[in-house]
## 1
Amino acid sequence: MSTTEKIARVLITSAAAEVIDRLRAENGPLMFHQSGGCCDGSSPMCFPEGELMLNETDIWLGQIHGCDFYLSQDQFEYWKHTQLTIDVVPGRGSSFSLEIPMGLRFVVVSRIYTDEELENLTPTRLGES
Amino acid sequence: MSDLLTTAQDVLAKPKFKDQYENYIGGKWTPPVRGEYFDNISPVDGQSFTRIPRSTKEDIDLAIDAAWAAAPEWNNSAAGYRSNLLLKIASIMEDNLEALARAETWDNGKALRETRAADLSLAIDLFRYFAGVIRAEEGSGSELDASTVSMNVLEPLGVVGQIIPWNFPILMATWKVAPALAAGNCVVLKPAEQTPVGIMILLEMIQDVLPAGVLNVVNGFGVEAGKPLASSPRINKVAFTGETTTGQLIMQYASKNIVPVTLELGGKSPNIFFESVMDADDAFFDKCLEGAVMFALNQGEVCTCPSRMLVQESIYDKFMERVVERTKAIKLGHPLDPSTMMGAQASNDQYQKILNYIKIGKEEGCKVLTGGEAAFNEGLDGGYYVQPTILEGNNKMRVFQEEIFGPVVCVTTFKDEAEAIEIANDTLYGLGAGVWTRDTHQAYQISRAVKAGRVWVNCYHLYPAHAPFGGYKKSGIGRETHKMMLNHYRQTKNMLVSYDKNAMGFF
């Protein structure tokens, strides 16, 4: 890897990408928002693009399989040293995330960046309303 | 001997369920308009045990129609009449407590002793509490001057929508339904898709109590049934318990209709132990140890799970030795075994998420003091079991900041009161907190300084009907339980009456 290549903050597994393809065929363009706590929380939520209002309290982390991925800025403060990988498992969440009727649930798997990687991360930007 | 064995097997036997349940709309069991159902899986063994309607907007609309048809009469009914019906519901639940508790355990995975002693008992008491409150409370009135009287008349909102979680299915339904009905509203309720069955069994038992259309229950997935309910312009209020992003969406939908919301969202509750707890090895210290291990109640699937343990440095080693010992004594087993203390996580995705968090905790440098792995229950290989886990680290780590919703507590130390408060409040959430000390001045001052809606002092995880519950910060809006909840389901009609026969003199 060349030193100029930026490290992505959010990745996706091929299994999760296939689920995105199926959801996109039905719902059109999609977005992700990482949720905070409680029953189905700390999980990535997948919505039709534009479903959740975004503004400067949200941080754009990157794109996964053509979908913008956001989380709240205050939550980002505690997450920024970890790389996220969006995967999918059989299961049932009770949020409004689009994959749930398929009997599947997106989950986030995290990994700590190395010191070297921390110097070379993809820049973030604020969400826009 | 063989009789004993038979009894033991009966105790663990799966409760009987119907092959399929329907929606409950307008007092009738109503199949979903599109005719689709989904399998309901038990976390006890990972197997499907019944089918549940996969409802859509059409079903939600039917339920709202039914609710509005019942509303003119129910909204204007006498408090005494509603109170008596709530009391009947409570009695039916009490008479069927064992059957409801066993069904709930099979649906949710939690240990039977919790569904018996907590979920059902609290739900019964809450119906009785609100039945009592509405007989005793009054509107208010005041003579503003010699000929002007102001009367505040409490009026129900009309029809309300409620979306509830899966961690205490019948109890969370009760927290929302009982005050809404007590206040005179008709309700459309959507249970969580992981745990719909206990509520349907309860409805079968109480279906003859309430007039048709007063309480309607529609099952289905969030995006297909929950969203049309939350965004309907024919709902006068939305109450939701769940996580933050969905909470934001619900507020967004409510903003289009200008209707109120109550939200009960996440938590990362600190449980703070000051050095005085170890001044004696007595009954109170034993209570403190139990308080520290409360993170395992309901497998940690509680919004107020005391998932951050803050222990004063001076007692840390000795205290944690005893906490680890107490945690190791937690008995895992078949959820229907009355001696089992901790059952199964509610769903596979929860189970996977918890294990992912334990992994990230280890990667971030947490020391595992006990647990740290999945657990295996012989004969229940497909079930979702996790060992009660204690991770030692610092408050900036992700496992200290995110709700894991599992039997995982993250422990760290503090030097003095100032640092305890700083760590306790260094979180996005403010739902619950625990303060443990033998110093009453300290108990008061620390409790006032912690930014949380419920601070348990020298106790934890008590949920009496008569104490308000709800969050500061990103933990939500509004309160549940307590009579103040009634005002989240009512309008105030102010009647301003003049007894002066003379014109005001303007025109």
## 2
Amino acid sequence: MKEKKILCQVLTTLGFATAAAFLFPSCGGGGGAGAGGASKTLIQNAGSDTMVNLAQAWAEAYATVDPGVSVEVSGGGSGTGIAALINGTTHIANCSRAMKDKEITKAKNQNDAEPKLFTMGLDALAVYVHKDNPLEKITIAQLGQIFGEGGTITKWTQLGVKASDGNDEIIRVSRQSNSGTYVYFKETVVSKGKEFKLGSRDLHGSKDVVELVGKTPSAIGYSGMGYATEEVKMLRIATETGNDAYEPNLENAQSGKYPIARPLFMYTLGDPKGATKAYIDWCLSEAGQKVVVDNGYIPISK
Amino acid sequence: MEKVIEFIIRVCGISAVIFVFAIFGFVFWEGRELLISGEFNFWKFLFTKEWYPASESNPRFGVLALIAGTASVTVLAMAIAVPFGLGAAIYISEFCGSRLREALKVIIELLAAIPSVVWGFIGLTIMNELIMKLFGAPIGLTVLNGAIILALMSVPIIVSISEDALKAVPDSYREAAIGLGVTRWQMVYKVLLPSAKNGLLAAVLLGIGRAVGETMAVLMATGHAVHIPFDGTPPFFHPLDSVRTLTATIAAELGETARGSEHYQVLFVVGILLFSITFAVNLTADLVVKGIRDK
């Protein structure tokens, strides 16, 4: 008899737990779905690692604009965000690159809705070396020869400098292929259709790249200009030998003189509705664009 | 009532088998389209080193460099962990007093309780700088770094299983050996090691299984570079090169892929490969252990 009682208790507890799970679903119901309810409306916002700090800042600032909405930000890379959008696990995907045709088709087929693009700001991609590296400027072609498959530059002496630790081999620091920064750098610097040279150290985050370059005297890497630290130096970049080399900063990026600046996007599936629409509109408003400037990125010019 | 409980316990017992088959089935199912499609060349998959799974124009799926990465890190890790692990096991079981033994066992088990991401963090920060300083390497995220971390992670397994194997040798063997007037070391070397050799081998194999399957720590410590650390010029093996392992590749890339894409499927094929490797290692270990029991 005693055993039966215990079993009954276990079953009741389990029953309650299941019932509770059905009655009080987690707030991931969707943008706008829970607007009338007691719980907060949750907007899922995933993707670009470059944009994660910015997205977080937007989310925090928006909490004071509309306390009824909570924006949950996660990183992982543009590819991760797009995959999440296609698989229906996020409302907004942050992307530091445009969606590929393949991805757009997939999104359409799987969800019966066209992905919609919003340009949220600009990011200047900086090429970083260790602070003791004597190199000051570099051309796009040289970067292509360093990073691209079949490229011939592998030694610092080929660029006419010596790394401060005496090691002549160029240590390439790159990103994992789910990163929008990786794709953008591949397309604009390594040049379209070509691949990266294998053997680069492929790191997970924008910050990791800058940190590793700061610790490694013979390294070169690329990352958003907002991630600069005391330990690294940003190279000035020229389109070709003989042309002027420009420093990555606000004016040069907005004027288009700095050759590797790119737009930052948000994607939704179909036209955004309700809370998601209000959120994106706010991010594009003057208040939202101020957050962009505060985080070291370049606002979109109206 | 009795019957119900018996039934529940039986289900628990069988569930492990079901899970293993379900997982293998799932991994195989997710990768099936690519495996059976005519485009997939298994030979090329195993023996080329070009790993460009996300390429738009020319995707290439060669895992040779990843296999070399896993193999080099594992072998070097075992070269460090086996002598240390066996030495520690012999010391604990034969040479030290009972209080010290208990203390050592607790501490070594504590080593097994450190989460792998913490090990990875140690590799990324402390070991990185240490290797740069000690070996003058341009970068510390290398085979050596990953191997040291993995060695530390597999030592507890090797120690505890080896110690059990040594304990299982009947005391009469020891008494007989001492009775013949040998020294303690001679007894260990000539009597204990040969009679416990199956258990010791199993310990090493389970250590290897741990090392092959480990993900997070090696992802952080090895530099994650698609590169083969072997070449034709002496010393043939370069422990100060960065590599990337099979496990780390799956962990780093699976999140980005859309379900059902070619890239997604090839990662599952890598999963099948990995599963086969660890399965072979574990099976060998089990057969070896069974060998001891049947004796």
## 3
Amino acid sequence: MADIVLRGIRKVYEERPVFEGLDLTFKEGKITAVMGPSGLGKTTLLRILLGLEQCEGSVSGLENARVSAVFQDSRLLPWLTLRQNLELVCTAAMRPKDGGSSATERRIADALKLTELTDAAGKKPAELSGGMQRRGALARALAYDGDVFILDEPFTGLDEELKERVAGRLAARWRDQNKTVILVTHDRAEAARWADETIDLESLMRKGDAHETAL
Amino acid sequence: MQNKTGEKRIGRKVLAALLWLAIWQAAAVGYGRSFVLPSPVLTCQRLAQLCTQGAFWMSCATTLLRVASGLLLACLLGFACAWAAHRSGLARDILAVPAATIRSVPVMSVILIALLAMRSAAVPVFVSFLMCFPVMYTNILQGFDSVPREYRELAKVYGIEGGRFFGRVMIPASMGYIKAGLSLCAGLSWKSTVAAEVLSSPRVSMGYHLLTAKMYVDGPSLFAWTAGIVLLSIAFEKCLKALLRRW
């Protein structure tokens, strides 16, 4: 893996420029929080990184990376149970290092345990609360075991106590496994608590430099 | 409270059925020629007689098999063509012509043309397939087109491709349209199959017995076979719906 580098990103939406020559670097093995007010283009930035939006400029560092994503909406497939949702992504793109079905089972069980959803594994998304669906999307990203995690407000809808437990566990796991994590959040405290670096997108777009190291 | 409403509704349905049976009985008595318009009692008696004969069940089973075969073929080809049309604009344009044409060709024309080209036993299956295909194709294509962008993006990001994407994402997400198409085709396939059997007259078929009853001016048999077709068609549709409910 390498740093993820964006150079000269230019994106226009319905004749309104979202990014005008944006340069940005996400460091390998770090948790980076991207902050900024609504409508600034945080989600668009993540969609560019995921290859879901066309833009001018270059994105490097993701060419051979396996990417786990949590979208702004949970996107659990409603006709599958939570466990089946996880199984689907785990078995879709198997790598030699993923091991056989027992290894996949272990990853799924681990992801469900980390997000405190073990008891809900057999339930369909419609039977889960909003917060559980959010954690379900996180569990899916964990079970997929990407090299890079791209997360759009992953802890929205979780109560403070649960967020503290789950986010703390995940941050520790990501640091332990040297994962590159890009996390969009509105919550400055959330960014300060779990991220290694914070990027203030608004300042960056205004001044051209807004990296700050979190505590 | 709900039970009472349900009972009331069933009661109303039974009353409505009895009313129509009474009208049929009165018309039959008034007309006075049972070989043209038999009474419901006479029709039921004849149907009961037919039920004791092995040939009746054999004909029912053969017609049922033809209906199911035609529908299955329409589904399989409908899926394949809808997938091609969904993926390629060129395929969509090419397939739009036969789909629209077949839809507006009268079923009798299709039967007569098929009779020129194939043996009589194959005609009902072909006609049933041809009548159901545009309905299935259009519905499945609509279903594929309406799969939310969010699910496609999810599949792209997580590398869900090929058969897995088709079977685990596209088909379940389109199931509402597929079920509606099958529901429409369940009735259509029976009508077209029996019509084709009447004209192509394969020996073992419900349509052949309809034609024979008409030739011998045997009203009770004609009505009894028709009642058999209607009952089987309803049972077929109910089974299909029960099967689809599991998905």
